[in-house]
Design a protein that fits this description.
The protein is α/β, with parallel strands linked by helices and about 725 residues long. The protein has 24 helices and 23 strands. The protein has a 7-stranded parallel sheet, with helices on both faces. Helix 13 links the parallel strand 15 and strand 16. Helix 5 runs parallel beside helix 6, helix 17 crosses helix 18 and helix 22 runs parallel beside helix 24.
Length: about 725
């Protein structure tokens, strides 16, 4: 009798049950960004740059409150409610340069904020105008999925991650729309962006359209050619590639075949933007790592994009392209969930050691694996290859770099892909896209010479299967490194968990400074207000433009969201906090307050409460009330309340201040008036020149306030 498992019968990878790493990843991100220490610089959106001075207990009417203490110029103190944490961001500017503190009561901050907002609006107007032009233009509406599309997706060896599935659905939806697609898919290295691109490319081919795939390196063009060819081998499509390794004769033949429509998918470097290359019927443009292309290539891409669906892939979490997506100028999909059974890459920083190199390579060979040895100077590669051969005589060693003859480079990479080479001694040309599941050890010589994102990208070439992977960063001596190099290497060693690209991008920003985000004239503002606050001001500017200059364009979006107010501020004298004897660490309490402040749904709040109970024991009533405050804030915001004060048993609701707001013509406002008329003893309406407010007596707790809000909206 024989027994087979399902993955053996269907030739699919077995899905292993692994611990969910998302919670760890999210918690680490929060800790990294919001673990403020007394003395750290922060920016408050209403008051400007100050210094964080810790949490402080204050007693009001016999009840304790926990407030955030900020120090401003001339040692002025400002206390902020824990419910206002979303208005504070950690100041991230150029490391080593202390910002100027703002003075409370001065209008300097407001002037700077408005000036920044005006500058941002000028750029944002152009971007939104581009977005409007794209939405208004007519492209090709692709057909719904055919049987061959379903067959291709069913042949995927791995199970789609939830984010991968969402990104695929979003891309297909955009392609089926009349307006040309412009979507950015952002995900960490090895998270499955290429599979999303393959499915989109085949969908275009099913409607007899051609696809251009633009990649930043010759090696990656060849790698993608192999990947696309392998995945589409059973489908009636022709895939080819174009890079500097192709001969003139081969290139001319490709140009002719593309013009005749004989090539369905063409993968290539910037050679694809060559004016000699004319597509017969281009339907989809896929751009991998757009930020690696120069200005001239991007200008040519603009011409190619007209009326064509465009899909951009990036592993760098906060590039300028992502910034534009956040600004609403293009659509965005983020792949955050790692593939099942992916393990963190063990990263070790060490002085140059022949013994370590020998042991690392021999261990990898003993388990049938392969090794990358990276050295970024072409001149030194033969010497490094000789060193590896001397240390491990049994190893099959080969070299690869950008100056090699095209055919020789292809043959070397193919040999490495097929497992005929044990150690590939190469430059950073392996940084992008190489997918070799059997290579799970990487040694990077002179790691101090690489940038942080480069190190992260290169490390992403290993650990792409269910095997434990290792990355060794070799340096001459730690003491000889510059401060920046030391911080870079510490960061790459510290952030080795799955999906840590966001943390790496933030640390990179911290080390190098915010620099040129939206153009040279913007960097001055970023250093004055801090990078995170710049984002907040940017978002405010976008929202204002959507409500004024581009009101008609975003009318459908505004109708769908039906948000009467952007945020609701809550003030209370009730004891709603995390007590010292429940969470003893002040830093931990701050992280938990920040995490709670960012939650929105009832499911998230229930999960948060469950985590607290699991870590700290039974949840005290004051913590339950604290969690309920988030529900109250959400309900009040939906109802059109800008500020809610709950003090001395009375709830005062300040309704939206703009009399032109659609709230005043809504059914909710009519219900509120009726409720006030039916309960004249408890409910009092008050009108001032600025706004309308509503006060309700006998509201002793947050729970009672929620019940009252429900009766108002019933």
């Amino acid at each position: 009798m024989l027994c087979f498992t399902d993955h053996e019968i269907f030739e699919r990878y077995h899905k292993y049950t692994v611990k969910d790493l998302r919670a760890t990843h999210e918690a680490m991100t929060l800790k990294e960004l919001f673990e403020l220490k007394p003395g750290d610089y922060v920016t408050h959106i209403d008051y400007g740059v100050g210094r964080f001075s810790g949490l402080e207990k204050v007693t009001q009417n016999g009840k304790s409150q926990e407030l955030i203490r900020l120090i401003y110029k001339n040692n002025d103190v400002l206390y902020i409610s824990i419910h206002g944490l979303h208005k504070i961001s950690r100041y991230v500017g150029k490391e080593g340069e202390a910002p100027q503190l703002n003075r409370l009561g001065s209008n300097t901050w407001q002037v700077l904020k408005q000036k920044t907002k005006r500058q941002v609006k000028d750029i944002a107007k152009d971007l939104i105008a581009l977005y409007a032009k794209r939405k208004a233009s007519r492209g090709f509406a692709f057909s719904a999925d055919c049987s061959m599309q379903e067959q291709l997706e069913a042949s995927f060896l791995y199970e789609d991650t939830p984010d991968q599935l969402k990104a695929t659905v979003a891309v297909k939806h955009d392609m089926e729309e009349q307006a040309p697609m412009d979507r950015l898919v952002c995900g960490d290295v090895g998270f499955g962006k290429t599979e999303v691109a393959i499915r989109a490319a085949f969908k275009a081919c099913c409607d007899s359209k051609q696809v251009a795939v633009l990649v930043p390196s010759t090696v990656l063009a060849f790698q993608h050619y192999n990947t696309f060819s392998e995945r589409l081998k059973d489908m009636p499509v022709r895939v080819d590639y174009l890079n500097r390794f192709r001969t003139t004769k081969e290139k001319n033949q490709i140009y002719k075949d593309v013009a005749d429509g004989k090539i369905d998918i063409l993968i290539g470097t910037h050679a694809i933007t060559n004016k000699e290359l004319k597509f017969k019927d281009l339907g989809l443009l896929i751009i991998d790592e757009e930020q690696k292309f120069g200005v001239s290539v991007k200008e040519k891409l603009k011409q190619m994009k007209v009326g064509v669906d465009c899909l951009t892939l990036t592993a760098t979490p906060i590039p300028r392209t992502l910034q534009f997506s956040l600004m609403g100028a293009r659509d965005l999909s983020v792949i955050q969930t790692p593939p099942p059974n992916r393990q963190p890459i063990e990263t070790e920083l060490s002085d140059f050691s022949e013994e370590l190199i020998r042991d690392a390579i021999m261990y990898e060979m003993s388990r049938g694996g392969q090794t990358f040895f990276i050295s970024n100077r072409v001149e030194n590669l033969p010497e490094m290859a000789g060193l590896v051969q001397r240390l491990v005589p049994d190893a099959r060693v080969a070299m690869a770099h950008g100056r090699m003859d095209g055919k020789e480079a292809e043959e070397t990479l193919m040999s490495f892909l097929e497992g005929d080479i044990d150690v590939l001694v190469a430059t950073s040309i392996v940084e992008n896209g190489l997918d070799i599941p059997n290579a799970n050890t990487m040694i990077i010589n002179n790691a101090q010479q690489f940038g942080l994102s480069d190190l992260h990208q290169m490390r992403g070439r290993v650990g792409r299967s269910n095997r434990k992977a290792f990355c060794y960063l070799l340096i001459p001596s730690y003491l000889t490194l510059t401060d920046d190099a030391q911080r870079r290497l510490r960061a790459i060693e510290e952030f080795s968990s799955i999906g840590s690209g966001f943390n790496i991008a933030m640390r990179d920003l911290d080390i190098r400074g915010a620099g040129n985000i939206l153009g040279a004239e913007q960097s001055g503002f970023i250093s004055e207000v801090g990078y995170d606050m710049y984002h907040k001001i940017l978002n405010e500017a976008i929202e204002e433009l959507k409500e004024t200059d581009f009101k008609e364009l975003f009318a459908a979006e505004a109708e769908e969201s039906k948000e009467y107010v952007k945020e609701c501020t809550i003030e209370t004298d009730l004891e709603v906090l995390l007590p010292d004897d429940y969470v003893t660490s002040g830093t931990e309490r701050l992280v938990l307050y920040k995490e709670l402040n960012d939650l929105t749904t009832e499911e998230e709040l229930a999960a948060y409460r469950s985590r607290l109970q699991d870590r700290f024991g039974p949840v005290p009533p004051c913590v339950d009330e604290l969690i309920e405050t988030i529900t109250l804030r959400r309900m009040a915001k939906e109802f059109g309340i800008e500020k809610l004060i709950l003090k001395q048993g009375r709830m005062v609701c300040h309704l939206v201040s703009n009399p032109e707001n659609p709230f005043y013509s809504s059914e909710g406002f009519a219900k509120l008036i009726r409720y006030a008329q039916d309960n004249p003893r408890r409910v009092h309406l008050k009108e001032t020149p600025d706004r309308l407010s509503l006060s309700i007596d006998n509201i002793p707790s947050i729970t009672a306030a929620i019940a009252q809000m429900r009766s108002l909206t019933a």
